[in-house]
Amino acid sequence: MPRISILASYAATAILMLGVTSAQAATWSASSPETSSCFSTNLFASWIYGSYTVNNDVWSPCSNVTAGVQTIWANTNLDWGVTSDQPNTSGIKSYPHIGYLINKTISSLNTLTAAVSATTPSGGAWESTFDIWASNNSHEIMVWLNYTGTSEGCGNVKPISYNWTSAGCAVPLHSNVSLTGGTWNVYVGSNGRNTVYSFLRTTKTNDTTIDVLAIMKYLKSLNYFDDVMIGELQYGFEITSSPGGLSFASKNFTVTVE
């Protein structure tokens, strides 16, 4: 075989080996296709690691909104991420996330915190958010840490709200609330199935520890609900658009319950 062919063969082999190494980098991964069908492969692919569950959660095809290709991967609760190629159209396409089941009432808890360190892209339309479910999912508490809209309820992603300005911005019911180490604008609305309380951090961040119990006690003090049972505590990336494929990663996600 000519020397140039041998070198080409070695190069091809090296590329293949690199591809295998890359493909094997994650302990678990799953890819869902571009689709408008709720029955497509891996839309809700999930992986359990100890007390944590990672979920691809491409749910828009089940609401008649076409979703793009999405690949989720995970090694542990401390190291997982997703690459998502969602079209530049309106409507949320997916919420790749990690979850931890609490199943305790507010009054029975002494401590409930969640820590995360994330990597997020500069483009697209998305929010990096906790999603806390309570009272058999009749209450949904979202805690936006980083996002591409504004804390005033404007931009390319907006919280669910009962009230809107003439310019199409959501109106917070509570502004500049000091809580769990940050300042928040709080929006309240309904998605047609449950009440949604959205806390938008006025100073965006990818690295923080949230006092979830303090947030639940705050809402309880305003009589939005009573001593509810907290169900699953989730953290992930709610993606509206990410054309061309944008990557997100979650590091060091841990939940402390006492």
UniProtKB/TrEMBL annotation:
One example of a Gene Ontology biological process annotation: polysaccharide catabolic process
UniProt-listed InterPro entries: ConA-like_dom_sf, GH11/12, GH12
GO molecular function: cellulase activity
Keyword presence, Hydrolase: yes
SUPFAM superfamilies: Concanavalin A-like lectins/glucanases
Family as reported in the entry's similarity comment: Belongs to the glycosyl hydrolase 12 (cellulase H) family.
Name the UniProt record assigns to this protein: Glycosyl hydrolase
Protein's organism: Paraburkholderia phymatum (strain DSM 17167 / CIP 108236 / LMG 21445 / STM815) (Burkholderia phymatum)
